[in-house]
Write a structure and sequence with these properties.
The protein is α+β, with helices and mostly antiparallel strands. 32% of the residues lie in helices and 24% in strands. The chain has four domains: 142 residues, Glutaredoxin (3-Layer(aba) Sandwich), CATH 3.40.30; 140 residues, 3-Layer(aba) Sandwich (Glutaredoxin); 234 residues, Rossmann fold (3-Layer(aba) Sandwich), CATH 3.40.50; 31 residues. InterPro entries: ABC_transp_unknown, DUF7088.
């Protein structure tokens, strides 16, 4: 009996051992991970999974990261390894990554490490200086923290990775760009034409304008294009055009915005009078772009100087232009003119000591994914192929004809983001009479208000003030403490609608000088158009109307709480809109505006006059009365686009919100979800004092008591088991 029991135990041991071995073998290929974080920070987003799952050619990532770095850089390396492992699990055989050793051993560089550093240098990855604490001393150390992605002949790099914030977004964006580019290049049927307008006549005057190397520019540019061609599957076709005839030169320079140079005869130098041009014109599918090969620069005292393009930098510029022309990045229209904000800083205002209203940060962030096309309605119509049109704070009146163009763009399915202000801030004149005077706020009326009202949204001429607002520290010489900036509401919790995918994880925003919105329900056909409220103020809000004074020292909440309520601050309308001009005559264009169909040329004048004489002529379907499915986003707060409200890395929730809106209007919600994971503002949920006391008591008293009781229960169970075993053997 005892031998059988012993054999049974041996058999069980061998069986258990076999099961453990088999489970370990299965775990090599069959495994799962559970990301328990609320925002799924340590698992791939759907956008990342889709990007690597659609790879059609091998993607190789070479990582150059120094070892044994201090915190937080060691955590960054660990996170990067885990992230790349997740990509590899989804990408399969097409996704490969390698970490290269670039760390010296015992103060000396091994041959392998030396080769890896040279490789990093060849790819443009340079060491960065980091600060470390060693033996209670602050020291500086050079460290490699970058990677290179290679897909076919295309290369993308992230030169410095100093934080885990937004790293997945950077990687996925770069992989998507490479993958899209390869697909686009492989599908091209026509070549991209690169016309190099470089007049040999310029060589005679090159030494006189400080361009001694100009005769060699032709070959340098050709070599640069050949080098780029090797990386982008040979899609470029170079043609050198030597032009010196004045008539042809004038025509080409006006058409392509090329710099044209003319000079008189200089007998003493044996130089004849002549003309010339220098520039690259890139053409593809009827679209053109121009890069200058010679540029003029005005310098104080010195005057006009001329500079020649650097062939080394030209490759990157040319590559960017080609990417736009072949349509890798989606186009975004940005309305210029009519007093709208500029994408670049207002240098004149800065020189005069006035605040700049530029949006350079927004321009940089958006341009990394999209191609921005600035549009002036006086120069021509809104292109049909736009996915999205941004109208940022116009201040000047639109003509009816211009409103018609905007209306028809929406009717054609172009999504529109209208980001406005209700008032125009007029600064006092800088003289003795204006010293110490506050700015004046004049209501803005551009005509777009009537358009929006027709679509179902009314912007009220007022500012929303909120007790839940941004606070700033008051200098000690002014009494110290904190001061509420009531016209800068802090939006959080139930004031942000997180239901739409692109709004997921937007936990907090800061608005500035924002106006309230009202739905004009009688103008909204709920069977055709859906209105979604995205932002609102808290219940402790009130309005500043008529007399506007934004000096924080003079703003106080109303004494009567009944005067405070929540106000709607941002809406998204989606569906089939009805044209504002339905049942109306098409507006006539102003004399300064160009024709919609640039056909009123000299040859068509006679036929146009004949048509005007024929009064019986009638036309139908001259414009679209009901739109395709389109989206209209309204945010009455242009301050949220300003450089001082966005961070250059795009990690703040303000930047995330604006970029997510643009992605949504371009049908890319998955990228919007991915970007939301990097948000930096995550406020604690507001609770009542009683709830806070209960939570505090639970953590301080009840939770430890529960742990102690659990421990006593385990101890009692073990004690009872020991007694049971002792009684069995004693018996």
């Amino acid at each position: 009996m005892g031998n059988f029991s012993m054999k049974e135990n041996y058999f069980k041991f061998i069986l258990y051992l076999a099961v453990i071995v088999l489970l370990n073998f299965a775990g090599i290929t069959l495994f799962f991970r559970a990301d328990l974080t609320d925002d799924k920070l340590y698992s791939l987003s759907p956008a990342s999974k889709d990007v690597v799952a659609t790879l059609s050619e091998p993607l190789t990532i070479k990582v150059f990261f120094s070892k044994d770095l201090p915190a937080p850089h060691n955590n960054t390396e660990r996170y990067l390894r885990d992230l790349l492992e997740e990509y590899a699990a989804r990408g399969g055989k097409f996704f490969n990554y390698t970490f290269y050793n670039v760390t010296p051993e015992e103060g000396d560089l091994t041959q392998n490490t030396d080769e890896n550093r040279d490789m990093a240098k060849d790819y443009g990855i340079q060491p960065v200086q980091i600060r470390i604490m060693e033996n209670d001393e602050v020291k500086f150390k050079n460290a490699y923290m970058g990677l290179v992605m290679i897909h076919g002949d295309l290369i993308e790099k992230i030169e410095t990775i100093t934080s885990t914030n937004g790293l997945e977004y950077q990687l996925t964006g770069a992989i998507q760009k490479l993958n899209n580019k390869v697909s686009a290049l492989l599908q091209l049927k026509d070549k991209v034409q690169v016309n190099m307008y470089l007049s040999t006549s310029l060589n005679t005057i090159a030494p006189l304008i400080g361009l001694d190397q100009l005769p060699m520019l032709n070959k340098a540019v050709a070599d640069t294009i050949e080098k780029l061609n090797n990386k982008i599957l040979g899609i470029l076709e170079l043609k050198h055009i030597d032009i010196s005839d004045k008539k042809n030169l004038d025509m080409v320079s006006k058409k392509y915005n090329l710099m044209a140079l003319s000079w008189p005869a200089i007998p003493e130098k044996n130089i004849s009078a002549g003309h010339g041009a220098a520039g690259l014109v890139i053409e593809f599918n009827g679209k053109t772009n121009t890069l200058p090969l010679i540029s003029a620069l005005e310098l104080p005292i010195i005057g006009t100087t001329y500079q020649m393009a650097n062939p080394g930098e030209l490759e990157e510029e040319l590559n960017s232009v080609v990417e736009k022309l072949i349509g890798i990045n989606k186009d975004i229209g940005f309305l210029s003119g009519h007093g709208t904000h500029s994408l670049m800083p207002d240098r004149l205002a800065m020189m005069q000591g006035m605040p700049s209203s530029g949006m350079q940060v927004l321009n940089t962030l958006v341009s990394s994914r999209y191609s921005i096309k600035q549009l002036d309605l006086k120069d021509g119509p809104i292109p049909d192929g736009l996915n999205c049109l941004i109208i940022a704070r116009p201040t000047q009146k639109f003509s009816d004809y211009e409103l018609f163009q905007i209306d028809q763009a929406l009717m054609k399915g172009t999504n529109i983001a209208f980001i406005s202000d209700s008032f125009n801030e007029i600064m006092p004149q800088q003289n003795s009479m204006g010293m110490g005077m506050p700015p004046r706020y004049e209501p803005i009326d551009t005509g777009l208000e009537a358009l929006l009202n027709h679509y179902g949204i009314k912007i009220k001429k007022a500012y929303v003030l909120d007790k839940q607002s941004y606070t700033q520290q008051v200098p000690q010489n002014m009494g110290g403490g904190e001061q509420n900036i009531y016209f800068a509401p802090m939006l959080k919790e139930n004031t942000i609608n997180n239901t739409p995918q692109f709004m997921d994880n937007i936990k907090g925003l800061v608005a500035m000088q924002i106006s309230p919105l009202e739905l004009v329900e009688k103008n909204i056909d709920t069977t055709q158009v859906t209105a979604t409220k995205l932002l609102s103020s808290s219940d402790e809000s009130w309005l500043m109307e008529d007399s506007i004074n934004l000096n924080p020292m003079f703003i106080r909440p109303p004494a009567n709480e009944d005067e405070m309520k929540s106000y709607d601050l941002a809406y998204l309308l989606e569906g089939n809109f009805t044209s504002f001009f339905k049942g109306k005559a098409i507006p006539e264009k102003d004399m300064g505006e160009k024709d919609i169909n640039e056909d009123n040329k000299e040859g068509n004048t006679e036929s146009t006059l004949e048509n005007n004489k024929f009064t019986g002529l009638s036309a139908e379907n001259t414009f679209i009365e009901t739109s395709k499915t389109a989206k209209l986003f309204i945010l009455p707060c242009s301050q949220m686009l300003q450089d001082n409200m966005l961070d250059p890395q795009g990690r703040s929730t303000n930047a995330t919100f604006i970029l997510n809106i643009i992605d949504h209007l371009n049908g890319d919600d998955k990228i919007a979800q991915l970007r939301s994971k990097q948000q930096t503002l995550n406020p604690v949920a507001q609770t009542t004092p009683l709830a806070r006391s209960i939570i505090k008591a639970f953590n301080i008293i009840i939770l430890p008591v529960l742990v102690i009781l659990f421990g006593l229960g385990v101890l009692a169970k073990r004690t009872a088991r020991k007694k049971k075993i002792a009684n069995r053997f004693n018996a």
